[in-house]
């Protein structure tokens, strides 16, 4: 299956991507891919450094005639987001990604593809292995754990790198050059509650919300896509208000940086309200599906009778929980006043679990403005603290402040215009790039970010454009030739 990928052009890029995607590389479980990269560099006879947190640095001298150019850092992250369709049997800890060609797209069978940021990693690998691509002295920086905390970039020590220019290969539109990004902070609300026995004459139900698009909680947050946790909570609110619905379990969403596509719950209704509940909840489902018919045509909400659970959440805690989740902001909070069409601040209610007397809600708040980021974080914190939750803010990382006077920006915009007959879009993005953190360790480094077109990142619909990869590869090679002199 992956042989079709190896025959795509440019073969140097796609073959490295196929090799990389054969290696399991979950965030926070990068041992196998770190060993893979170490072996890759050493087999090429290059200097390989693994720092104290697991980042891999491979150094390659300049090719002949390029010794007078500034040393560069080419950087991408090794880990990938793990999402799969509910009916896909796949073990991300042990299996390599199964890819196939679909027209102009490379896709994976029922899982995320790992093009974010595997195509960037593969690009750098191809340059390291090449014998005929002109380039200045370079340091390849492969960071770990970008997707779930940026702990690799956070833990990188100053002094390990000598490069004056950093090329980050982690954006997803080939006509864009990024010069700034949002920072983020994880918000976690937890509390314990007493479980109550299921009352007599109760009826058990399973509720399933599925079929949503999901997507990247930064890049896709402005699209108005459905959030499975918020949709599920609307059902809880209506069922509780009108029929005394009680919650036994919830399992909604997974990763903080992925818009939740699915949520599953077990609930009970008193037998005397059963018929009315079924009628009312179906009306609500129809209303929700009508609201989302354009953006989420495959949304499916199923309410079906099931075995009675043994315990349910105590009613007092449940009422507060459902109202707090309804209050908690999800989606765009504020648009940028300085850059057109840029989301400044947002939140993703990413994961909600209720089981065995414990509540857990996980959010990711992003913003390009630090004060606005913590304004929204405190709003969420307040909503959950009012119902007795312990709320922690963790994993905060800074944004990357745009520098419109960047010298490397001038180089890239000039090359792009010559190759494509039009100017690139110079933007800041609402995703979390590692440049902000790397800049804290190397404040004098001139940084830029670009990449090939990737759609549906952080979801099983992730796909990489073949024609865009060809355009991007040509762009990379020309950039390497035109790095300024020292």
From TrEMBL:
| Record's keyword terms, sorted | Hydrolase
Coiled-coil features, chain-numbered ranges: none
Q: Does the keyword Metal-binding apply?
A: no
- Pfam families registered for this protein in UniProt: M20_dimer, Peptidase_M20
Indicate whether Phosphoprotein appears among the record's keywords: no
Q: Where is the Peptidase M20 dimerisation domain?
A: 208-291
What's the protein name? Aminoacyl-histidine dipeptidase
Q: Which organism is it from?
A: Flavobacterium suaedae
Q: What is the lineage of its organism?
A: Bacteria, Pseudomonadati, Bacteroidota, Flavobacteriia, Flavobacteriales
